[in-house]
């Protein structure tokens, strides 16, 4: 399954519990998917019935969980040798690889079919493509092939708000495309910041992360460049019907701070970074999560203000 040797699961210390199967679905990743998909659905110009909206978010969440289970099945060998992932259900032996595969495939089929029935076929097709892209294009191909794995593979995490928008409207718009682009451009600096202080894990696992193939100095330059490229996307989204004065103010403040953080990472000397245990890189990584959350929260607040006759352009 990979170039680092056949995966051997650790014998299960106990029978798998419900929590172990939940962990297969990558609940932390799922929470981000659910939030951005919900925002995409709620800020759309067409409103769904509350029951339809709940069903849409539920099945998008199940699709995200399916992707996570398939990823854990395929990546069990490299997860087993990375300190950050070694205790995941499959490499730790608590869940068998075949169970993870079956769960992933089953939830994939259920989520796609039910989203199509609950909303429309275009939303279902986008969800199916997202699962395929993450499980096959990213996990099985890009992740172990190229240091651009995060750049291209970031599309998988960028689709949820577009799926939410399409579930409500049945079509793609510039607003949906810009929400997609925001997450797509945010993903590389977010994960490269993580890679800067987790390089040893990726090196041990044989994953060609940029820090492994080009070194930390090159990765620092890439973080800065992609952060600068992210800024016009974020500002552009704030100038569409998604935004308004409040959103634009939030966007400008967040992006100034994000660029400052990327600049500090670019200026960092490796000896200094090692001495303080990559404190700046870890702070940037944590802030990147807040950065994305606050952008989408601003779109949601702006939509709520518009419903009361305020906000918007």
Would you give an account of this structure?
The chain is an all-alpha fold and 313 residues long. 74% of the residues lie in helices and 0% in strands. The chain contains 14 helices and no strands. α3 (50-74) runs antiparallel to α5 and α7 packs antiparallel against α8. It is flat and about 55 Å long. The protein starts with 17 loop residues before the first helix and ends in a 6-residue tail after the last helix. The model is unreliable at 1-12 (pLDDT under 50).
Outline the secondary-structure elements:
Elements: H1 18-24, H2 27-42, H3 50-74, H4 76-79, H5 97-118, H6 121-141, H7 149-169, H8 174-197, H9 199-205, H10 210-213, H11 215-238, H12 245-267, H13 270-275, H14 279-307
How many domains? The number is 2
Helix/strand order:
HHHHHHHHHHHHHH
Determine the structural class based on helices, strands and strand pairing.
mainly alpha
CATH topology of the largest domain: Tetracycline Repressor, domain 2
CATH architecture of the largest domain: Orthogonal Bundle
* Fraction in helix: over 70%
Can you count the helices? 14
- N-to-C span: 52 Å
Question: Using only CA atoms, what is the Rg?
Answer: 20 Å
Please describe the biggest sheet, giving its number of strands, its sense, and whether it closes into a barrel.
Answer: none
Unreliable runs: 1-12
If you average the pLDDT, what whole number results? 92
* CATH class division of the largest domain: Mainly Alpha
Transmembrane segments: 29-48, 54-74, 95-115, 121-141, 223-242, 248-266, 287-305
Protein name: Protoheme IX farnesyltransferase
GO molecular function, one term: protoheme IX farnesyltransferase activity
Subcellular location: Cell membrane
